[in-house]
Amino acid sequence: MRASLLQIAVDEGESVDARRQRVASLVRQQTGSDLVILPELWTTGAFAFESFGAEAEPLDGPTYEAMAKAASDAGVWLHAGSIPERAGSGGRSLYNTSLVFSPSGELAASYRKIHRFGFDKGEAVLMGAGSELVTVGLPQTTLGLATCYDLRFPELFRGLVDAGAETIVVPAGWPERRRSHWSLLARARAVEDQAFVLACGTAGAHAGVPQAGHSIVVDPWGEVLAEAGSEEEVLTVEFDPAKVGVTREQFPVLKDRLLGVEPPRR
Predict the structure, then answer these.
(1) 73 and 79 in contact (C-beta within 8 Å)?
(2) H helices within 58-146, ranges in order?
(3) Cα distances (Å, whole numbers) of residue 66 to 23, 71, 94, 106
(4) Which of 110, 114, 139, 236 is found 20 to 30 A from 163 (Cα to Cα)?
(5) Which domains does the chain have, with CATH numbers?
(6) Is 148 a catalytic residue?
(7) Could you tell me the maximum CA-CA distance found in the chain, to the nearest angstrom?
(8) Is the Cβ–Cβ distance between 95 and 59 less than 8 Å?
(9) What is the pTM of this model?
């Protein structure tokens, strides 16, 4: 399976619409890939809190339209990162929502980020929390969806594995000052869940917050298959989804779980 992670740079001098069209063009260039992944909140920047309300859009808004067409034109599965979604009665609610499109341009799944970052400010108070774990079945593998700060919560990833996930996709807007945590947590989630982790970050700066970049692909043994630098980059990697089943069979650690699983019925 061939995946391309598009580590987009967010430039405050570039309009949201111009970036949307530029990214759609980049997606169309990935015709040799099976799966293309974009970062978290790449339209606005994950730390551009003041832009969330102004740039929020409905699920089927302009980013949906542009990404659906790009996925169809390229013939790829597209995890289009996340957008600030406006929803609810009168559009008063905001969510950090990921969109996944099939190669025909159909919306295959959406995921509202469960763990919001910021403690008592920023995303944590401006956006609502999702409540549902989401997986997407591809011909080659089953994707589990998580977003940025979710990476710090292993119980979410274990829930995705229990739901059948073999490859977990993590779009992010992760800050440079905690980059060591980014790679450490991506490898930890891969090892403990015996799954591939494809974590796609951003370059540039979001509202003055330098981004970590360093998008990373980790296999079920925790080996780093590919890692980007700090600038805008397309990171492309070939991996074999069958390695998940082989790893879980050869080293069946998940079968020894005692906590957080239902006891066998008698």
Answers:
(1) no
(2) 62-74, 123-126
(3) 9, 9, 21, 12
(4) 236
(5) 2-254 (3.60.110.10)
(6) yes
(7) 64
(8) no
(9) 0.96
